[in-house]
Amino acid sequence: MALERTISIIKPDAVAKNVIGEIYTRFEKAGLKVVAAKMKHLSTKEAEGFYAVHKERPFFRALVEFMTSGPVMIQVLEGENAVAKNRELMGATNPKDAAPGTIRADFAESIDANAVHGSDSLENAAIEIAYFFPATEVCPR
Ligand code: RTP
Ligand code: MG
């Protein structure tokens, strides 16, 4: 198994609900370590850049508006199969389809306000980590 790093973002809805700690506990219990973290209120430009792959999708404007509606908590998670493990902890994009016990099933309101983001591949994880964290802000391995 491979030691991987991935990006997790606790979205504005979950930050407003004051469940950062509860979500961190799930990462810890699953063996994922936080190796970088910052809280940030994203600008429109930052959110547009982060979600650029979705810019032609019908939900793009709503997504950017939501992601800039309040502060987010951004972290790099490290662990065995971190990318897939984090996606598993998150649950399906739409909380209505998310498996019981997942973060989205327990804390998300809707497909828009869905509590967390997680990188969907190792390749995108590297791009997303570099988007938010200069190398000096991530703990060395
Ligand atoms: P994320 O990127 O936030 O981790 O979520 P995801 O991979 O599960 O979903 P993705 O397809 O990458 O979509 C990014 C975010 O856009 C919103 N979305 N809305 N209304 C819609 O049909 C729709 N589809 C996606 C969601 O908030 C999703 O998390
Ligand atoms: Mg995605």
Report, as a whole number of angstroms, the end-to-end distance.
16 Å
Strand content: 15-25%
Number of separate domains = 1
By DSSP (H or I, 4+ residues per run), the number of helices equals 7
Distinct small-molecule ligands in the complex = ribavirin triphosphate, magnesium ion
Structural class: alpha+beta
Low-confidence stretches: none
Describe the structure using short key phrases.
141 residues, alpha+beta, Alpha-Beta Plaits, 4 strands, binds ribavirin triphosphate, binds magnesium ion, cytoplasm
Walk me through what this model shows.
The chain is an alpha+beta fold and 141 residues long. It has a single domain, classed as Alpha-Beta Plaits (2-Layer Sandwich). It has 7 helices and 4 strands, in the order E-H-H-E-H-H-E-H-H-E-H. The longest helix has 11 residues. The chain starts with a strand and ends in a 9-residue tail after the last helix. The relative contact order is 0.26. Bound molecules: ribavirin triphosphate and magnesium ion. Ribavirin triphosphate (RTP) binds next to strand 4. It is found in: Cytoplasm. It is an enzyme of class 2 (transferase). This is Nucleoside diphosphate kinase. It catalyses: a ribonucleoside 5'-diphosphate + ATP = a ribonucleoside 5'-triphosphate + ADP; a 2'-deoxyribonucleoside 5'-diphosphate + ATP = a 2'-deoxyribonucleoside 5'-triphosphate + ADP.
